[in-house]
Design brief:
The chain contains 11 helices and 8 strands. The chain is α/β, with parallel strands linked by helices.
Length: 284
């Protein structure tokens, strides 16, 4: 069976929560994230997806998170990061196509000062990932062109280094710098859903989606809707893990590094709750 793993965004909280979910799925359902046919990750999910693609043991990562030893998403996390009001306004706007909105956000991102330059930002990811080399697994971190608003899924054939690819998926406008590659710049803003593209490209039988469903995480909500539409058409077996009420109790600041300890515990609980659904699709 060919199973795809899609990991959504969610900031620092999302990183720890997703690690907890995947750790529980490995222990309770025998689902090893790194053995997936393809792994796609957005923002927080790009970091966790890179860990999975590298073959890192999720239960051990969850143990480290529980002890407060999880690394900062950028390796050089700004203190008290705050997204500027004009960028927040553009992020919540529904005016125009997704690409038009992405390009407007890109213009703001390119003009916004940040406390890190690109070199420091990308180097931090290389430290967190331990390498700039792509893993052998089919790993696809997602990002958006600041110039065109087009969604991009990098892979090991794209020519960009692993650290820069993952950094571009996490480049929140106004907090982190856009990542330049071959004259274009890439940022972390809403993407077009891409599960149908992955199903076609890799002839997938099933997808496990792990992503927090919160009002501010449009990417996750849209991806979940596309997956449900595919499952309703009997084209795909899916297990969608979206986070229980414990996530909301953690707080609304998804960039709060200190929230990762409770977040991984909630992830472990949510993963245990979802183990049966994952085992069911593995038997489909």
């Amino acid at each position: 069976m060919k199973v795809g793993l899609i990991l959504g965004g969610g900031g620092e909280v999302g990183i720890a929560w997703e690690i907890g979910v995947l750790a529980a799925l490995e222990m309770e359902a025998g689902f090893v994230a790194g053995a997936s046919t393809v792994i796609a990750g957005t923002s927080a999910g790009a970091i966790v997806g890179a860990y999975a693609a590298q073959g890192r043991a999720m239960p051990e990562l969850a143990r480290l998170e529980s002890l407060g030893h999880g690394p900062a998403a950028s390796g050089q996390q700004p203190s008290n990061p705050t997204i500027p009001d004009d960028i927040i306004g553009a992020l919540v706007s529904t005016e125009g196509t997704l690409e038009e909105r992405g390009a407007r956000l890109g213009k703001l991102a390119l003009g916004a000062p940040t406390s890190l330059d690109q070199s420091t930002f990308v180097d931090g990811f290389q430290q967190v990932l331990g390498t700039d080399d792509w893993p052998d697994a089919d790993f696809r971190p997602t990002t958006v062109s600041a110039e065109t608003g087009k969604t991009t899924l990098w892979d090991r054939h794209s020519g960009i280094g692993l650290a820069a690819a993952v950094a571009s998926s996490c480049a929140v406008p106004g907090v982190f710098p856009p990542v330049e590659f071959e004259g274009d710049h890439f940022i972390d803003v809403p993407r077009r859903p891409f599960s149908a593209e992955l199903v076609k490209a890799r002839s997938l039988d099933a997808i496990v989606f792990v992503g927090l469903i919160l009002p501010i995480l449009a990417n996750n909500n849209d991806q979940k809707d596309e997956l449900e539409a595919q499952a309703a058409g009997a084209r795909l077996a899916t297990a969608t893990i979206t986070g229980g009420p414990g996530v909301e109790a953690i707080g609304t600041d998804l960039l709060d590094h200190s929230a990762r300890v409770p977040a991984v515990q909630v992830g472990l609980e949510d993963g245990r709750d979802a183990a049966g659904a994952v085992m069911a699709i593995m038997r489909t």
